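Risk register update: the risk of archive-format incompatibility is retired. Evidence:
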Amino acid sequence: MPKHLLTAREVQTAAPGDHKDGDGLFLRVQGRGASWLLRYTAANGKRRELGLGGADRNSQESAGESLKKARKEADKARDLIEKGTDPIDAKKAARAIERAQASKEANLTKGGEVTLRRYLRAYHADHIEPILSEKHAQQWINSVEQHVPASVLDASIGSITAMQLLNELVPIWRKVPETGSRIFQRLALVFDASVIDGLRKENPAAPIKKELRRRAGRRVRGNFESMPYGQVPSFISALRKQKGNAARCLEFLILCAARTNEALTAEWGEIDKAARIWTVPAAKMKCREQHVVFLSARALEIIEGQADLNKRFVFPSAANSKRPMSNMSMLQVLTRMELRGEDVEQSFTVHGFRASFSTWSNETGIARPDVIEAALAHREQNLVRAAYNRSQFITERRALMDAWCAYATELKISEASAPAGRRQASEGSAQTPLGLEKECCN
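Archived output:
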């Protein structure tokens, strides 16, 4: 089979997608990230993909070095395959040995000699690989190992200080806030586990969260992460013309003011079409509390259009798939619509649409603040108020979501359809909420 098809320049400038180097080796570019993979057929006839690490594309020189390294790793894997050994199985076996050794050293030294890198890999093998796909599990650890300096990764896990961690994470957060945030969260989990294992007395990530955000600041960019609510109706109109599950999921997410994971993993067992209710289990919620979403007419219409695609997921990755779509799918929709990326005039995030909904709701006074917060599933610290919110906001929250649907889809809504709290507040006023005409949107 032909080999060495890529050049350093092609690696550096490769567009999103898979790019073959030959004999099973290829470069996969997704968003800002890129990684090397080797596709091969195992002895049992199963097609598999072996991750060979991230691709450094910061310069043509680094891209060339990354290409050489990937080819060497691919050759090693091919040698194993020729000998009848599956390289993925061999990799897992090596990690199991490394994990056992790390555990042994941890028990003996209590963190004195166990490096962060070694403990990170052990944690990854025990807690991340079992629950994520191979691709996403590899991305999880790559993000840390590719960005955190070796001076920290190869330091004793018990010796790393909060100040050291802060100084190393600030530059990462400034350059790419999304990546910096993920790395911080992942390191926080690893250090939490190290405390449980007795390797440290405290988590060095815990006291630096606010200071990290303050020092990193906000990137100065000519765009916005959350779309101004005045642009949402025209965006929804354009989104309707996009094909595919990801576009329908994004529209559903916007109309429900839901978080990304909640929408992506929505299951048919959570939907009550007759009652127009979507009940999100506590396990999927950020606050670990069950959340009820009141479905507008258009949100329900989207759901009904998905009915024959999958027995479990409302928005599956493919027909009859056992998995929902990836968390990149809706971002790719924004990219296709030229609303995401470094080179576009305005760049938005999926999560930002929750802010669009919140700003619209608060600035227009369409509903009471408590109702808006409940619709967004924000945790109420006062337990008495929280109980009241759950029991009393049903009518107002349903009306709020209907009003948001009417606004976002450019339908018309009657004043009688607005939340009760807003109707009472606006009695005697000549202006209808939102300035909309008195016509029912149903």
